[in-house]
Amino acid sequence: MTKCKKKKRQDDFQKVKLKVGKTKPKADNATNINFRTKGINLTEQLKKDANAPTTHRKLNIKDLLSQLHHYSGTVKQGALVGLRELLTLHPSELDQHLSSLLSEAAAVFTDKDPNVRMSATRLLRFIAQSVPAERTSPFFPLLSAHLSCAMTHIETGIQEDALKVLDVLLDHYPALLAARPALLLNNFLELISHRSTGGGARKGQEGKGRSWALSVNPNRNVTGQQWRLTVLLRLGRFLQAVVEERRAEEGVACVSGDMFSVLNGQGGANAPLELNWEELTYRKGGFQVFEHSGAMPTPHSTFKLRPETEPGAGVSEGLGTGEAVRGFASTLVPLLLDVWVEASASDRSKTDSAHLLTPDAMSLMYQVLSILQLLRKLAPQREYQDTLDVWFRSEYLGDFKQHFMKNFPYGNLDTPKQRRKTDPKRSKQSTTIPGQTVEPLALNVLLCQVMVSMVTLSQREGQAQEPDAEWLMPLRGFVQETLSSGAKLSQRHLHTLLETVWRMVITQRSRAVTEDLLQAVYVQYQQMNLNLQTRTLLLSFYSRLYLQEHNHTHIARSRVLSRWLAALPLQLSQLGHRNPALSDRLLLSIQAAASRGNKALLNSLHTHACRLYDPQEGSVVLLPAESQQRLVQLLYFLPVMSQGLLANLSRCCTAGRVSAGLAASLIRIIHLRSSLSGWSVGSQDMTLRDVDYISFLFSTLTGFSSDELATLQEAGDESVLPPSPLSPLSLYPTPLEQFTHHWDVVEEVCHCLETLGSRSQCFDVLQNGICKNLTGLAVVPDSMAAGLLRAVARLLDLSFLPSEPLLRFLSRCCLSLLSLLLTLQQDTASENNHKREAVWGACVAVLSSIPRLLRLVLQSLRVKDLCEEELPQLAQILSLLLQHTALRNHMLANATLLQHIIQDLTRYCRGESKEQWMTDLLYCYSVTMATHRGNLGLRDIY
Amino acid sequence: MSAPMEIVLSADSAGQLWNCAVLELHSGTNLLAYRGGNTSSRSLTVLNGEYILGAQLGKNFINVWEIQRKDQLQQKIVCPGIVTCLTASPNGLYLVAGIADAIYLWEVSSGNLLAILSRHYQDLTCLRFSDDSSHFISGGKDNLALVWSLASVVQLDPSHTPEPRHVLSRHSLPITDIHCGLMGPQARVATASLDQTVKLWELSSGEMLLSVLFDVGIMSVTLDPCEYYLFCGGSDGGIFQVSLCSQSLSRDKTFQSDNEGNQVFKGHRNLVTCLSVSMDGTLLLSGSHDETIRLWDIQSKQSVRSINHKGPVTNALIIPAPANMFLPDSRPGIPLPRFSRHLNPSEQGEGVETGGVCLRLAPHTQSVFGDGENTKVRVSELEEEVRTLKKVNKDLYDFSTQLLTKPS
């Protein structure tokens, strides 16, 4: 048994003898490694999902989203890339899955793998590009929660990438981000500093001890300075977004930020209703003026019972109140100062002169300053901004002076080029920081702006200004030098500079300073070839300054300003029609100054008035309608109205290049200027002589200048209708448009003449005018003839007897017009209707108001002079006159004359063919006579 | 005949028979006429229901009548220049006049000249108070209408010139007329201008609510008491009615053809210079340069009555009849003091102040922008002050009752 066991054991465990120098026998279970492996990546699914669109890997959106929870970084990254691909191919997926997409993508902001984070940022940018802000807004709390989670993450890499996410959001959803500023602001602070915990005791000692201190994290792969720069850059952009959002909220366009871009910054939130009387009368429905039926004042009311928010809210409650902004500023500003001090200290070591800065330091300072500037603008309301400025001044003026002003102005340090090449790491670093190239000019300009905002409007204590003067000197010198150097400045720099000048002028209240600064700006203004925007900017700067003058005597007395004003009319006339927008700007300023009775402007306006109101190439005919109206309104303020100007204006009215409505208001304004109107213009009463005024009215009434009339007389027969016995004057048919225009003007002139005072005298003047100037004409425009008849009919006083020559001329006009009427009636085009009615109305009115005129007309109808074709025309005229009820009685008074004419007519028309027109005439005649006799008969009976 | 409720007060620039006449509103009978001089445009005003004041046309004084003594000119207030417009505050405490381009503000009780406001650049055309006397609006030939808060204007603060609360600067030609509606600081203000527009503003915010562009320059404007309609008197003699509330009753109105005629009151032949609506909003009064005043029924837009004057009408207004007007024996509550012509009478050596105390508010200097602790201190200070004041008041009361009840 035992033997057997032994044997067995030996069989099982044979001892392998290993000997030195012999190869080791292979073990039985040794793996043969003589094979090659090849990996098979199943990146694509085999199955095809017919329902949902897929990527090229045949993954649909659900798969991809679920892959985001995978532990492996590559899978996650692949999923993110896949998502981007899917969304580009099928944008409709974005709409359906936006909620889950955003929440999943945001969750990987804090992923450990930098590649995943980068892909997530890319995906977010892609989504942001294609989804508008209002659709993202429901998911935005989630996004910002993840964002602040990433920003406060303990790993520096995640923090850095969080800033990139922030960039994306700032690019696309600034308003959404700015709506909840509180949390993010704290995050920013924590990125560059830490809250010192044990400050309680110190706080008590120092009063306002600083609970935040700058921190440096040595683990970062960039230097502390560069890291701060990147953070500050984002902070600046974020604050900018907040400021802009606030401005949009308030709807106030003229917060000092863009004070010059909107000239009359009254664009309140609720736009006023602008109505036109004509529209109003023809419109069916009414309109609503008062909101909430007028029971509540608009939100812009300046009466407030109590402040809307409780005071004392800290940073944590956002930047809604002035207190909050101040709280935030008191934390941030010391940090900013520290940042700059550290940077400048390290910079100092590299350079000899403190004026010269390395590019890094310069961009850092630029960011610091722009954040300071933005902080100022953060104040929720205008009044808080001033208090905030005062606070800034009291807290930090000393620090600012010490750290910023000592080495002003700053210049660029020329870093030798080869040094960069030898130091590739450095150059790489500097390229990674965005926006690092800041010109020294931009920096200096911004510094000016920040420092000048420190100067407060302290009128009460004039002595307190003195210390300011010392540090303001270099600033002022710099501003003056930059502006007057004649170099072209970019739009943004100029804007900032102008704001600085504005602030200096308002606060300094010294005439010499104002003069110098304005002169420097004027140098810029006088430059040639400025583009429209810059020109407008400068223009609005001056005009705003002028509008502000009332409470600043030093501005009002400025010589530069008045020189600028005086140059405006010339500029306007030189500009012509080339740039209507700019002309409009100019006009606004001119109008404001004219209404204030500015002497310099009015004189210059007077000098250039004839050019401006030239009927051929003056601004008044070249500019668009709105500017024309302004120009016309400007007439009211002109100091003296010379004869030449009135002649020009009369031509403007009649030439048809201004609309009839505008011509009417022009006449009305001149009417108001005349002492005959009953409206006293003011101190300068006798500036429009009555003679000139009446001659203006008369030449407007005729509608044609004497030169034009003279050329008409000599013109050949091709343009005018030839005279005939039925039409003693040859009429010049004016185009329909001109006729209607002139007709409207005539109505207005008649109205002015009617209200002048004594009617008979007025008519006398008119009669003299017509007799002297017009009775000798052989060719008369039809619009003029009709207008004269109209005026005579309207102005005639019953007690006044018109003179014989006038009546003769009028009768000729009347007869000619009547025959014109017949030719007009032949062509039945509807556009001539108005003309026909006007001519007929004028004839009837004048004939019925002056019976003697009718008699003259009838007398001039000599049948025997007429040729055969004209007989029917005469008959038509007669029957027209007979048919009109207003004329019937007057016709009857001339019954014998009428009878003669009709007898002659019947004799001359050869009797053999009684034509239609003859029967008509005889019928009309007999009816008229019959009713007359009937009346007589009735009278006889009673 | 019982005393009329509302009367028409009218004046023309000729002033041949009388300076201004008082008419019964409904019958048009001439009740009274005040004689002496003539009155310039927009300068006839009733002070406190006891005096009638009117600026003399082209001269530098203001005529004053006691309201019950129609024949006799009571006083002439001599002013530094020609008065272009004049108005008294509805509570009868202040008098405001436009002289050239400056606004003069007098306190009626003492006659002191409280302020000269020269913010306008050209002559003034119109001055109006709000119905609670808290604000007044001035319009001038410099296209501006300014809203002034009376409280801030009368503040005694020599270093600080009063600023208007709002500058209404959207007109482009001179302002011709202003109307201030009811409801105190929440009122709506209508301004008319030669630039052919009428604009409606909100007094509290200074914002423009409405602008209506017409075909002619507008010389006068008014609102009815309910502010349903805006009436605008044109320079061609037409009076235009703009409906400010939408009427949704148009369901059964199909006949619209005479829509245009419906909204114009036609009758005057020259500038309509003054407009006024009666208290119940049914009658419209208009005065014109064609030397008539007309009374219109607003509902039917017909001229009810036309009354001829001897010259261009300068003032026509409907006012509730003052109680004293028809009681010949009544006396004004307080005699009218001498109105001073200079800002500080003591410095100018003109008129020695005797006994009167001039009470004017100092500007509010305390900044509210402070932390909680400061406010608390401030509040407690104020409470303390109130307590002291109450005590002083009580002492005064006790003293006077003692004095009055003492049998002597």
From TrEMBL, chain A:
Residues 560-930 form the TEX10-like TPR repeats domain. InterPro entries: Ipi1_N, TPR_TEX10. Its main location: nucleus. This is Pre-rRNA-processing protein Ipi1 N-terminal domain-containing protein. Belongs to the IPI1/TEX10 family. It holds the Pfam family Ipi1_N. It comes from Oncorhynchus tshawytscha. Residues 136-239 form the Pre-rRNA-processing protein Ipi1 N-terminal domain. Keywords: Nucleus. It is found in: Nucleus, Nucleolus; Nucleus, Nucleoplasm. GO terms for cellular component: MLL1 complex; nucleolus. Residues 411-434 are annotated as: Disordered.
From TrEMBL, chain B:
WD repeats lie at residues 117-152, 189-211, 265-306. The keyword Cytoplasm applies. GO terms for biological process: DNA-templated DNA replication; rRNA processing. SUPFAM superfamilies: WD40 repeat-like. The keyword Cytoplasm applies. It comes from the Eukaryota. Residues 366-407 form the WD repeat-containing protein 18 C-terminal domain. It is found in: Dynein axonemal particle; Nucleus, Nucleolus; Nucleus, Nucleoplasm. InterPro entries: WD40/YVTN_repeat-like_dom_sf, WD40_PAC1, WD40_repeat_CS, WD40_repeat_dom_sf, WD40_rpt, WDR18/Ipi3/RID3, WDR18_C. Keywords: Cytoplasm, Developmental protein, Nucleus, Repeat, WD repeat. Pfam families: WD40, WDR18_C. GO terms for cellular component: dynein axonemal particle; nuclear pre-replicative complex; nucleolus; rixosome complex. Functions as a component of the Five Friends of Methylated CHTOP (5FMC) complex; the 5FMC complex is recruited to ZNF148 by methylated CHTOP, leading to desumoylation of ZNF148 and subsequent transactivation of ZNF148 target genes. Component of the PELP1 complex involved in the nucleolar steps of 28S rRNA maturation and the subsequent nucleoplasmic transit of the pre-60S ribosomal subunit. May play a role during development. Belongs to the WD repeat IPI3/WDR18 family. This is WD repeat-containing protein 18. It comes from Oncorhynchus tshawytscha. The gene is WDR18.
